Amino acid sequence: MKTIFGILVGLCLATGANAQESETITITPVKKGEEPKAVMDAIRNDFPKGMIVDLNFLPLVLYGEQWSVRTEGNVKQSDNVKFYQVNIKEGQESYQAVYDKHGKLHYSKRIIKHAELPQAVVDAITVAHPDYKIINDREKITSDANGKLNIVYHVTIQKKEHGILQGMFVDPTGKILREIRPYKV
């Protein structure tokens, strides 16, 4: 009887632990009129001609995840810091930025459409993947890490004859930082 009870308790604990792993995390919008003044002032300063499309609370667990290339050492998981993600439209360009509750810009991303990449980036991709071509899906990711500006290019390449796409992150010097698993379209 004790053995059966022990097995049941173990199964309940295992099920509970498994349920915690599949927790859904959402980015929620900041309600109109509840925008932090420091964040709004910083956005207006950094993007003076920009129109704010939306402003959202960014859960700490998601901080840095969507950027795919992280700057190490900025924020520890245990820190009680609130982040805000903002989407901005400025003319034909789109931006996405992450600010902390004090209005400090941590990351910004500008979408580059049909723009020229640095030659070092093009050369590195051509050498690493000679049977692929660079397509027009490109992003320039700018991040501020402890006052130091970092730039990374997110480029999509396509296998010339098979329709296979692959994303990669390359720094301006041509160093390939990360490659995303290829997928077929």
Shape: elongated
The number of strands is: 10
Low-confidence stretches: 1-22, 66-79
Q: Remind me, CATH topology of the largest domain?
A: Nuclear Transport Factor 2, Chain: A
CATH architecture annotation name of the largest domain? Roll
Characterize the main sheet: 10 strands, antiparallel
* Gap between N and C termini: 56 Å
Count of distinct structural domains: 2
Determine Rg (CA atoms, Å): 21 Å
Give the class-level CATH name of the largest domain: Alpha Beta
| Helix-strand makeup class | alpha+beta
State the helical fraction: 10-25%
Can you walk me through this structure?
The chain has 185 residues and is of the alpha+beta class. It has two domains: 24-111, Nuclear Transport Factor 2, Chain: A, CATH 3.10.450.40; 114-184, Nuclear Transport Factor 2, Chain: A (Roll), CATH 3.10.450.360. Helix content is 22%, strand content 40%. It has three helices and ten strands, in the order αβαββββαβββββ. Strands 1, 2, 3, 4, 5, 6, 7, 8, 9 and 10 form a ten-stranded antiparallel beta sheet that branches. The longest helix has 20 residues, at 2-21. The chain is elongated, with a radius of gyration of 21 Å. The N and C termini lie far apart (56 Å). 19% of the residues are buried. The model is unreliable at 1-22 and 66-79 (pLDDT under 50).
Topology readout:
Blueprint: H1 2-21, E1 28-29, H2 37-46, E2 51-58, E3 83-90, E4 93-100, E5 105-113, H3 119-128, E6 132-145, E7 148-159, E8 164-170, E9 176-179, E10 183-184
Antiparallel strand pairs: 1-2, 2-3, 3-4, 4-5, 5-6, 6-7, 7-8, 8-9, 8-10
Keywords: Signal
Protein name: Beta-lactamase-inhibitor-like, PepSY-like
Signal peptide: 1-19
